Amino acid sequence: MPDSSPSSDVVIVGGGPVGTGLAIDLAQRGIRSILVERYPEPQPIPRGQNLTQRTMEHFHFWGCEAALRAARTVPRDYGIGGLTAYGTLLSGHAYDWLQRELVRPFYFTDNERLPQYATEAVLRRRAAALPEIETLYGWSAEGATQDAAGVRVDIAARDGSGRRELRAAYAVGCDGSRSVVREAAGITQTRQDHDRLMVLLVFRSHELHRLLERFPGKSFYNVLHPELKGYWRFFGRVDLGTTWFFHAPVPPGTTRDNYDFSALLHESVGAPFDVAIEHVGFWDLRFATADSYRAGRLFIAGDAAHSHPPYGGYGINTGFEDAANLGWKLAAALEGWAGPGLLDSYTAERRPVFVSTARDFIERAIRDDREFLEAHDPARDPAAFEAAWAARGSGAKSEVGAYAPHYAGSPIVPAEPGLVPGAAGTHAVAARAGRHLTPLPLSDGRNVYEALGPGFTLLAIGDGRARAAAFARAAAALGVPLGVIEDPGSADLARYEADLILVRPDQFVAFAGAGPAGDPAAILARAVGGRAP
């Protein structure tokens, strides 16, 4: 008979980066969780390397930013930028790509780059330091059920040594694209196949490092090849000078044994070099989006909720944002201050952001690359190609600036009629409901991000300070945790264009206004899911 485990607040199935990040987020809010992960150690596949400035803000609040940066596998004084090349890496046609430093002023932290297994190791160590988290490594979920009282997750040790029943108020599946929790919840998916088989190679090469020294400060390289119709050949550094990963489309039916992968690497670079292949893996290139991220007490996040080709580093960063969005909402429900619509707002906010990411950035990039390759050929019309290539290089800056996920139009965020959450937008300093809060210095010298608390935060600037007490009373009546920052105002803070800014626990703006606009109780009630004061 299975052993019955002690109860917990939340069971998290899947202890990769997203699941462990969620457990840490919950723990820092005083919420207990049991984290179930099938692998005793992180898997040594160097995927999910690009961590955006926004993702590093999560690591800041989770208390492990410094540890993550210390785990970096490329030296600090070497850059982590990227480039796009035509034909081969050494063709002579290349421009800078994904220049994240262009949006650095809008975030509190720098971006980072390291293999996912190194990120997971840092998160595991942080989780081990938090008593609210019980970790079960080497265990797999076999099913999940729910009723009005809570959930039950059935797990089994992968070595066959035992079985357990885990009981909690909620369960979250962070268990990948073949999610057991998603299947148990009966959540359907919308899928879009691209009819492409992709290969992932991990290999060692010293000579490749020497060949690419002509591109100083670059750590990832995207090759547009005319025959691939917009799909990429992609190289990434794992360390400086030795280990690399590569992914690209390959013919259907390709296996480890019937294809010359070294020749593919040489062709993609445009020169021979030493190659020692350490790993070969395959996957089908497709998009899959869960039609809901919640079914009752069962939730999904990360690849369990959405999966897509590894284009632009969106995957792991999108998963971390799922965790940040869901963590405070589960805490609110467990602590009794969530309104009836708060948990449903997780799907309402996060699903449209992924749909927009897939449509407006990944699929658009594939389509734009395909159209460019069909229209321009340096052998056919060199002058036209050079002009178009230069224009692409100039336009490459816009992709980073245009990726600005927001929740304007969410049921818990006031917005102009017709707006819906999405990933496309612009970065701006002005505080706007549903947008990420830009960090600015307070009058006492601290950055506002150094003053934000784990709950809601009211930033009352100048004349807005007169209404701070009314917000505090309304929050107390609703049971909503609210910290108040009162500031006399400055030229820097005037850039927010608001004197009252209500910031959510995930650093998104719930309300921004000036003067007497809005009733504090109504504003707070909407921000926590519509519960009446």
From TrEMBL:
Pfam families: FAD_binding_3 (PF01494), Rng_hyd_C (PF21274)
Gene Ontology BP annotations: glycerol-3-phosphate metabolic process
Statement: the UniProt record of this protein carries the keyword Oxidoreductase: yes
Keywords: FAD, Flavoprotein, Monooxygenase, Oxidoreductase
Keyword Flavoprotein: yes
Span of domain FAD-binding: 8-354
GO terms, molecular function: FAD binding; glycerol-3-phosphate dehydrogenase (quinone) activity; oxidoreductase activity, acting on paired donors, with incorporation or reduction of molecular oxygen, NAD(P)H as one donor, and incorporation of one atom of oxygen
InterPro entries according to UniProt: FAD-bd, FAD/NAD-bd_sf, G3P_DH_FAD-dep, RIFMO-like
Necessary cofactors: FAD
Highest taxon, organism lineage: Bacteria
Spans through the membrane: none
Protein name: Monooxygenase
Record organism: Methylobacterium platani
